[in-house]
Write a structure and sequence with these properties.
Layout: H1 5-22, H2 26-42, E1 54-67, E2 76-88, E3 93-108, E4 120-136, E5 141-159, E6 162-163, E7 176-189, E8 192-201, E9 206-211, E10 216-233
Antiparallel strand pairs: 1-2, 1-10, 2-3, 3-4, 4-5, 5-6, 5-7, 7-8, 8-10, 9-10
């Protein structure tokens, strides 16, 4: 039997490889195909008003929790991928529309190292459409706020190491998730920007009753998401640096 750090490291690599392939669901592959087509359409060569509309691609990850599930902390990590289009309508104002694949949920590790007691994992995969308004300072930062509608395309729930077979797309989680979004972006290099995004469900995604030997209680549940993303602007003109007067 292999023991020690080397064995644990190989087990971790194997587990991460399995998680990566679990993301390649049919809905995720369809999303990638749709985004590839949208990227071609909003590139400078295909946008009729390229001087006005700005296309962009997004890649990053979420750190998530579900408020009301009795697990605490942004411990669930998931993908955040998408494409979008941004339209300025005043000197420093713009609106944007995105099509994103975003993974939410919750995670709690086992309470004891030799058992699955207390272990919990919830995987909620959405296709999300955020609509936002932005205040742009092209040379520094961009601040945005808005709402999004997300459609649940895949769900898996595990308790104490076993999958909850009653949890499917038919329930108990709502298929639609409306969210409030707050957004900050700043330029890293040329057309590449870093984006921090916070979102929270405007309405409950589930109502759950918890039962123990001593008490019973009911809680409404909400998605609570921190997003860390890189944004590449396809056809954004670079701000002209003003020369310092001598």
């Amino acid at each position: 039997m292999q023991t020690g750090a080397g064995y644990s490291f190989r087990c971790e690599i194997h587990t991460n490889r399995k998680l990566i392939f679990q993301h390649m669901t049919p809905s995720f592959l369809r999303f990638l195909l749709l985004n590839f087509m949208l990227t071609l359409l909003i590139s400078p060569a295909h946008v009729a008003v390229a001087q006005q509309f700005k296309g962009y691609g997004v890649t990053g990850f979420n750190m998530t929790q579900v408020d009301g599930d009795e697990c605490f902390g942004y411990k669930k990590i998931g993908l955040n991928l998408g494409v979008g289009v941004l339209m300025p309508f005043k000197k420093k104002w713009a609106v944007s529309l995105e099509n994103a694949y975003t993974q939410k949920g919750a995670y709690q590790s086992p309470q004891y190292s030799d058992s699955a007691s207390g272990e919990y994992r919830l995987l909620l995969n959405y296709v999300e459409v955020p609509l936002m308004i932005h205040f742009e300072d092209k040379e520094t930062m961009t601040f945005g706020a808005g709402v999004s509608w997300a459609r649940l395309v895949d769900v898996k729930e595990y308790e104490h190491g076993s999958r909850v077979i009653q949890t499917t797309l038919k329930g108990p989680y709502d298929r639609s998730d409306w969210n409030f979004i707050g957004d900050i972006r700043f330029r890293i290099y040329k057309q590449l920007k870093f984006n921090f995004r916070y979102s929270y469900s405007l309405s409950k995604i589930r109502t759950r009753t918890f039962v123990t030997s001593q008490q019973t209680w009911t809680r409404k549940q909400y998605n609570n998401v921190l997003g860390f993303r890189l944004i590449y602007m396809f056809n954004e003109k670079q701000p002209v640096k003003k020369k310092k007067s001598e």
